[in-house]
Amino acid sequence: MQHQDGFTRARRVSVFPSDSPVEFVLRREALVEGAVVWAAGGAAPGLGVIARSSVDGAHVGRATTNREGFFRIGIPQGSGPVDLHVALNGERTAEGRDLLLVDPVARVVAPAGGIVMTVEERVLDAELVVRVVDERSIPLAGAMVFVRSGASGETMLATGSDGRVRLRNLSTDRSYLVRALPPASCADKHFASPVVETTVEAGEVTLEMRDAFLARGTVAYFDGTPVSGVWIHVSGRDGLVAKIMTRSEGRFELALPRGGPYSVKVTRDRGGSDALESVDHVVSAESPDLAIAVAE
Q1: Which H or E run contains 192?
Q2: Is 140 exposed, middle or buried (0-12, 13-18, 19+ CB in 10 A)?
Q3: 51 touches 60 (CB < 8 A)
């Protein structure tokens, strides 16, 4: 709840007796207000509206739409642009099928008002099998598989003894980015799988975990100002290998399969079409560090 002076209440927390002081920090917030409506018409009550930083995806606020579909979120001042996501609160079922919400996104800078987000429900009953193997094609149990579509958050599942996971409640008309991280038994090495863009029509996708090196770098303007929130696209001979968004201070870090060299492109958009420069950079196991300077 926001006070009239623009501060929010500190959260109530439980503490145990100790000699350490307990601090409560009150931060000024700016309001983001709007409404969510159904594409078929009418207000959409009881939906969650989630605010995440457009730079690093960090959660900065949440609200639930009221009976008229309206929402109000207090965003910490100085947060910069935020993306508003709409999600179902809990699960809904109809005729024994899960109903999930198509995830729209609106990018705003607080304070902002008059936002209208139009959503629709779809029955998501398709599935995709992901198989994770090592370089000898041996299935890897306990590998973590991540799947993402659009701006929605990643879903994470662990592979079974056969190296497979079954991703359910997917849409037939959306593409999905799938990647994998190694099981705990491989934690003493850097491993990486390719990032695969696929649809449910593929039926089964195989991700091969490879011995990898750690590539890291920074992106900055020519005057030295760090550039956060831009996309790093890494490609090999067979196409896209990985993509990641720069964090604060313009930094990025990702595991790449040994081999290469790899071409590195910096873009404003996740799709890779809006390049910040016309020159691609090169990274390899022998030269894993990059300092990229771009024009404003």
Answers
A1: strand 191-192
A2: buried
A3: yes
Do 234 and 251 belong to one domain? yes
Cα 120 to its chain centre, rounded Å, is 21
Residue range(s) defining the domain that contains residue 136: 126-208
Beta strands at 126-133 and 204-208: parallel, antiparallel or unpaired = parallel
Residue 15 maps to a domain: no
Same domain for 143 and 106, yes or no, is no
Q: What is the pLDDT of residues 167-181, one digit of tens each?
A: 887 777 778 888 888
Long-range contacts of 272-276 (CB under 8 A, 24+ apart): 272/231, 272/233, 272/243, 276/227, 276/230
Work out the pLDDT band at 129, boundaries 50, 70, 90: very high
What does DSSP say about strands 92-94 and 97-101: parallel, antiparallel, or unpaired? antiparallel
Is the per-residue pLDDT at 253 higher than 50? yes
Cβ contact 24:1 at 8 Å = no
Q: Which two tokens stand for residue 107?
A: 């990018």
- Is the pTM for the entire model greater than 0.70? no
What is the number of domains present in the chain? 3
Give the model confidence (pLDDT) of 47-97 as tens digits. 888 888 877 677 788 999 999 999 999 888 777 888 888 877 654 433 334
- Mean pLDDT for 254-258 is 81
AA letter at 186: C
Which CATH number characterizes residue 98's domain?
A: 2.60.40.10
52/31 Cα distance (integer angstroms): 14
Alpha helices in the chain (DSSP H): none
**What is the tens place of the pLDDT at every residue in 216-251?**
899 999 888 898 888 899 988 878 888 888 887 889
Calpha distance 272→245 (Å, rounded): 12
Is 17 within a domain? no
Residue closest to 200 by CA, chosen among 262, 128, 144: 128
